[in-house]
Amino acid sequence: MIKARRLFGTNGIRGVANRDLTPEFATKVGSSVGTFFGGGKILVGRDGRTSGPMLVRAVIAGLLSAGCDVYDVGVAPTPAIQYAVKHYHMKGGVIITASHNPPEYNGIKVVADDGVEIPRELEVEIEGILFNERFYRATWDGVKGVNELSGALDVYVEAVKQHVNVDAIRRKGFHVVVDPGNGVAGLAIPRLLQEMGCRVTTINAEIDGTFPKRPPEPTLENLRGLALVVKAVKADVGVAYDGDADRAIFVDERGEAHWGDKTFALIEKQFLMENPGEVIVTPISSSSLIKDVAEEFGGKVVWTKVGSIIVSHVMKRLSAKLGGEENGGIFYGPHQFVRDGAMATALILNVMAKTGRKLSELLDELPSYYIEKDKLACPDELKELVLDELMKRVEGVSMDTIDGVRLWLQDESSILIRPSGTEPIYRLYAEGRTKERAAQLVVKYKEVLRSIINKLLTSVERSLANS
Ligand code: MG
Predict the structure, then answer these.
(1) pLDDT tens digits for 322-333?
(2) For residue 6, what pLDDT band results from cuts at 50, 70 and 90?
């Protein structure tokens, strides 16, 4: 059982199946969510994890006990489930998924009537219901049923196609290698691509909750297999997804994999050429590329704290049409305010079709940055004090302080210095136009951080010794 007073993390409730996430606990979550929504039509769906059938039934039992009318879409990509909540006018939804986490994990995500994850203050309400066991129990004749919803994937694939030039893509007849990594992307992506006239080669396509072929996180290191296949079959592009298919990472025709903010910058460029003046929403951890493209093509970047739910909520508030993350999350507002791997794929093919250029050529045209990362241990209790002191020491430098501090330096280099939300460390992430510059920045600011932390530790020790 999860004992903490807080259940929801940065992306729903996550834990190891049958250790943290038992069926008894999942039923209580279902009861709490059903009580929170006050009954009504609630949609449920899940990814392909081994513990999914167990947990989804437990959640459904809880929802039913609270008088909800449950609609079950079964196994589907997270963004398809989110889209279905909106499309079928549900009161809300519950998704059983642990996204990119290792196979032993699972999770419970709660979404509002527009498919977007509920904000923190509503999670607190659900936590309050659960911890105080204030479950609403329907009378025996008020218990509703479970309705199977079979058309959600068709509706979703159709919706994605509405936002790109399908004819232009079809004329190109792209050959695309798809790597769902044994996750649920295989249910929607090959179909979407075939319907847009692409030739599709799949690897790791069978859904398998043990993720036997590669970890469910599409990091560049995990995509070597995809890169080899793209080159071997001479495909135009390869694309890999995380376990629940809301993130997409692309491999160009040379077999080179690219971080999500580079492909996001391509989508951004095309989008701003067609929609000048629009706002682009992205976490402060994204590459300066996003800012460069916005400046060149007449857009405005709104930086957010790190986290996909935050990007979704900021986009909703601003009615922004485009958002993205370095991890491969693309948010296309006219479709839905959540990251969506199928939408990302369609948008990249749209750029390739409209420009008539190879993916590698398009990426090579973007300004190039070198990235250096590092980290430094820092006790959680000192993190805020360290940040205050750091800001004093860098006074006068152009900066953003939405999440940690990002310093924008004279020579187009920048550094983000940010306390980790989950570990007792500070992370440093530098970008420079040369490798040396990025490395130099990391060394310099790690030293600044170290001296601040040491000074604070010494003063804490001194005050303890005196007390
Ligand atoms: Mg995911």
Answers:
(1) 999 999 999 999
(2) confident
**Catalytic: which of 99, 287, 308, 312?**
99
Which residues contact residue 367 at a Cβ distance below 8 angstroms, ignoring those fewer than 6 apart? Answer: 288, 289, 292, 412, 433
**CA 229 – CA 368 distance, rounded (Å):** 26
The Cα–Cα gap between 138 and 255 comes to 56
- Do domains 13-150 and 370-466 share one topology? The answer is no
Rounded to the nearest angstrom, the distance between the alpha carbon of 204 and the centre of ligand 1 is: 17
CATH number listed for the domain at residues 370-466:
3.30.310.50
Where do runs of H (alpha helix) occur along 38-119? 52-65, 78-87
Chain centroid to CA 346: 17
CATH of the domain spanning 13-150: 3.40.120.10
In CATH, what is the architecture of 155-364? 3-Layer(aba) Sandwich (3.40)
Is 414 one of the annotated active-site residues of the chain? Answer: no
Assess contact for 113 and 62: CB atoms under 8 A.
Answer: no
| Percent helix, percent strand, percent coil in the chain, to nearest 5 | 40, 25, 35
Contacts for 54 with CB less than 8 Å, ≥ 6 apart: 17, 18, 23
Q: Which amino acid is at 139?
A: T
Ligand 1 centroid to residue 71 C-alpha, Å: 22
Q: Distance from the CA of 324 to the center of ligand 1, in angstroms?
A: 13
> What is the CA(360)–ligand 1 centre distance, in A?
26
The Cα 31–Cα 66 span in angstroms is 6
Q: Side by side, which strands form the sheet with 40-46?
A: 13-16, 105-111, 92-96, 40-46, 68-75, 146-148
pTM to 2 decimal places:
0.95
State pLDDT tens for residues 115-133: 999 999 999 999 999 999 9
Is residue 1's pLDDT more than 80?
A: no
Structure tokens at 421: 């939300």
Ligand 1 midpoint to CA 245 (Å): 6
CA of 453 to the centre of ligand 1 (A): 35
